Amino acid sequence: MLSDDVDFRQLVNRVPGEASFIILSDSCHSGGLNEKEKEQIGPSSPAATDTTAKRHSHLHSDVRSHSKFISYESILQHLASVTNIEALDVGTDHLAAHFGEDASAKFRLSASELHQVGRLHPDAGILLSGCQANETSADMPGSDGGESYGAFSNAVETVFKEHSGPLTNRQVVTMARKLLKEQVGINYFNTQNELHGCIHDVRAIHTVLISRFGFDSSHIQVLTDEPNSAVKPTGSNIKAALSRMIDQAEAGDVLFFHFSGHGTRVPAPNNVGQDEAIVPVDFNLITGIDFRMLVNSVQREASFTILSDSCHSGGLIDKEKEQIGPHTTPERNNLLQPRAKFIPHESILQHLASVTNIDALDVGTHLVTRFGADASAKFRLSARKLQRVGRLRPDAGILLSGCQANETSADLPGTYGGGAYGAFSNAVETVFKRHPRPVTNRQVVTMARRLPKEQGVGQNPCLYCSDENADAHFLRQP
Questions:
Q1: Calpha distance 289→307 (Å, rounded)
Q2: For 183-217, what is each residue's pLDDT tens digit?
Q3: Alpha-carbon distance 149 to 101, whole Å?
Q4: pLDDT at position 169
Q5: Catalytic residue flag (residue 219)
Q6: Are 377 and 290 in contact (CB under 8 A)?
Q7: Rounded distance, CA 271 to CA 136, Å?
Q8: Is 198 noted as a catalytic residue in this protein?
Q9: Least reliable range by pLDDT among 41-55, 160-174, 224-238, 366-380
Q10: CA within 13 Å, CB half, 314
Q11: How far apart are CA 175 and CA 158, in angstroms?
Q12: Given the residues 29, 60, 219, 262, the one annotated as active site
């Protein structure tokens, strides 16, 4: 039998004065389930924008979750099989006929009676909904043989496990909103550019996110080029996942992107200098311009942390302020350069030419020909439009790069039979192991700079972000 917002409003109206009625609904379209209740956190609250209502509740395309949603048509079909009534209206014809006085008031009362169902006790009802009214809630598969669970119920449970003291209703919902994360590890199997430790890096940082920061593994999207990977880390898939993550985010949310793989440099406009880029498995480059545009799309008061363990990753967010780097913290680089996570521009060009069969000397022509609208904005937009890509969100982007823009990042062989790993990812992992208390972004990079030198590796990790975010805790850990 269906119960709707009118029923809950009637129940809330019956609550005695100074009492409260809390509803925690882990179901699809549960936002606004208590009719006429004031929205505090949701699509229309001041923290949200017009894009909020268009967001999707399922961020992770590689997680086989199920939606807690039964369509109107399915409800109608089921009721028709029970009532044997041939009618297209769920309420009056089926529910009222089958359940009588037990049917929802929405289908029994007249329009004038429904209009009188008002907010007699505006402070009595408290609704914590698993999603917005236009979204669905997820039923998640258990990991490692565990039982399935509801994403929102699990999030609320996690909030209470992580915070022993009293919490306000606003704090519970704010913290239950997922920290949105994506990880990409590419080993470039069976190619001349093969690396060996990138997928290991992703798994190691994945473990840190769960054990150190207490996040659910099902809330982390992982893209690798392993043969059995359902979603490959192509340029299009990486950017689509990042865009969904940003569209999903709201004010106060924390976004995290970890990349371990090759980086490269491509000629800047008019061949003045070079621009940094990461190399997806299909060589559809993602440049600093793309990351700048993504950062500019992040909600105000949210943050977007990028941990890039790739060559020439310093400055990967175009125009982001340097906090630790060659101009603020100069370091001499006289150390060894082991296997580098770097594919030179010439090799990128050669690979793309073999795919497009075009006789052209610039990477952009090949990328736009091959990938069309999925190619980097750097190669699609006019010089005038690129110039307008400014720092609209100066406090949103936080880049922790494995090296300076003119350096390479190392892919190191494992010791004592261990697997290969990226020097920077390993350094960050080590920082968190050695320091259990919250550390700032500045502290993470400062401490992560020491380990490569101890290993004899010539790379200097950098930090690019606003002054405020430099001294904020990594991933805003409380």
A1: 17
A2: 999 999 999 999 999 999 999 999 998 888 767 67
A3: 34
A4: 82
A5: no
A6: yes
A7: 48
A8: no
A9: 41-55
A10: 21
A11: 9
A12: 262
- Asked whether the beta carbons of 26 and 48 are under 8 A apart, the reply is no
Read off the pLDDT of each residue in 59-73 and give the average, rounded to a whole number. Answer: 53
Contacts 24+ apart (CB under 8 A), 446-454: 446/324, 448/400, 448/424, 449/324, 449/331, 451/423, 451/426, 451/427, 452/335, 452/410, 452/423, 452/424, 452/427, 453/335
Candidates 242, 229, 247; CA nearest to 286 is 242
Kindly report which listed range (42-51, 116-125, 156-165, 322-331) carries the lowest average pLDDT score.
42-51
How far is it, in rounded angstroms, from Cα 377 to Cα 170?
39
Q: From CA 279, how far away is CA 290, in angstroms rounded?
A: 13
**222 close to 183: Cβ distance less than 8 angstroms:** yes
Q: What share of the chain is helix, strand, coil (3-state, %, to 5)?
A: 35, 15, 50
Q: Letter for the amino acid at 294?
A: L
Q: Which amino acid is at 231?
A: V
Q: CA-CA distance, 291 to 320, in Å (whole number)? A: 10
The predicted pLDDT at position 119 comes to 45
Token duo for residue 449:
């700079």
Nearest to 310 by CA among 181, 437, 399: 399
Q: Which amino acid is at 1?
A: M
Q: How many residues does this entry show for the chain?
A: 478
CA separation for the pair 465, 314 (Å, rounded): 12
Amino acid letter for position 290? D
Q: Is the dihedral of CA 336, 319, 222, 187 positive or negative?
A: negative
Q: Is 400's pLDDT higher than 90?
A: yes
Tokens representing residue 367 in the block: 């990328």
Tokens of 17: 């004065």
Q: In degrees, to the nearest 5, what angle opens at C-alpha 177 toward C-alphas 298 and 204?
A: 80
Residue 23 dihedral angles phi and psi, to the nearest 5°: -115, 120
State the Cα–Cα distance between residues 184 and 203, nearest whole angstrom: 10
Contact 374, 290 (CB under 8 A): no
Banded pLDDT at 38 (limits 50, 70, 90): low
* Whether 375 contacts 367, CB under 8 Å: yes
SS3 475: helix
Given the residues 28, 131, 198, 311, the one annotated as active site = 311
Residue 253: CB atoms within 10 A of its CB come to: 22
**What letter represents residue 201's amino acid?**
D
Report the alpha-carbon distance of residue 5 to residue 12 in Å, rounded: 10
Token couple for 127:
């609704």
Residues near 78 by Cβ (< 8 Å), separated by ≥ 6?
A: none
d(C-alpha 164, C-alpha 239), whole Å: 38
